[in-house]
Amino acid sequence: MTTKDDRLEFEARKREMSLALGNDEDAFQQSLNTLLTLDKYDYAYLWSWMGVPIIQMPADVIATQEVIWNTKPDVIIETGVARGGSMIFMASLLKVIGKGKVIGVDIDIRAHNRDTVEKHPLSPLITLIEGPSTTAETLAKVKAEIPAGASVMVVLDSDHSRDHVLDELRCYGPLVTEGQYIVVADTLLGYGKDTALTPNRRSKIWHPGDEPYTALNMYLEETDRFETDEALNGKLVLSSSPGGYLKCVGK
Ligand SMILES: C[S@@+](CC[C@H](N)C(=O)[O-])C[C@H]1O[C@@H](n2cnc3c(N)ncnc32)[C@H](O)[C@@H]1O
């Protein structure tokens, strides 16, 4: 039996529905309420990737996978590595793609977390750099790890205060190459209408105004190199980072 090739149609429908979902304020509010309930159970902390704890919402793991598969970066820089699961996740995709490496930056790489990463089968694809993400010294170490001409993606998931994220955007944004993404994690913190609605099962609490989404919007006022991927962000309900996936459109 011959069946019609509907792949293009299928993708077009996905895009249409994602954009429509992005405009559904009621669905987003319901998602936010659900996330606040889940936060009581440390929901983002319940997962692992190939045996290593990954502090992410499942929706963000899928979204990041879509970005990496579609753009196939040579280098992925992640600030804020914690236990390493997100680096392992991204390295596993690069392994299948057949090229690329992950550079992880954290102010505090604990011995047991380093041990987990260094003993993992994907460790040859990973470089760990310990230090505050925005100092000149750390940035120089990161830049030294980027081969000439490499395509570069960045994930910012360290200190979520507005000023730190804005600093990181100014430091790491210019490293992202055309066609690649910068992902600003935990933008969700900017969507709570008051502090009572802010997810608070964290070592630190950030309130609307002092969080990554405000920093991202300030950065977008400064640069025209990035634009929001509306279709990807539209479907980001039950995500920590709605609006946080930006595509580099400039040289
Ligand atoms: C939310 S966790 C990262 C989670 C990780 N990306 C994952 O998906 O599993 C935040 C991490 O940022 C690190 N951090 C906090 N402030 C930092 C800074 N100024 N520079 C670099 N890392 C920082 C913390 O030590 C912590 O490990």
UniProtKB/TrEMBL annotation:
Transmembrane segments: none annotated. It holds the Pfam family RMNT_CmcI. GO terms for cellular component: plasma membrane. InterPro entries: RNMT_CmcI (IPR007072), SAM-dependent_MTases_sf (IPR029063). It comes from the Bacteria. Keywords: Methyltransferase, Transferase. GO terms for molecular function: methyltransferase activity. One of its GO terms (biological process) is DIM/DIP cell wall layer assembly. This is Cephalosporin hydroxylase. It comes from Rhizobium phaseoli.
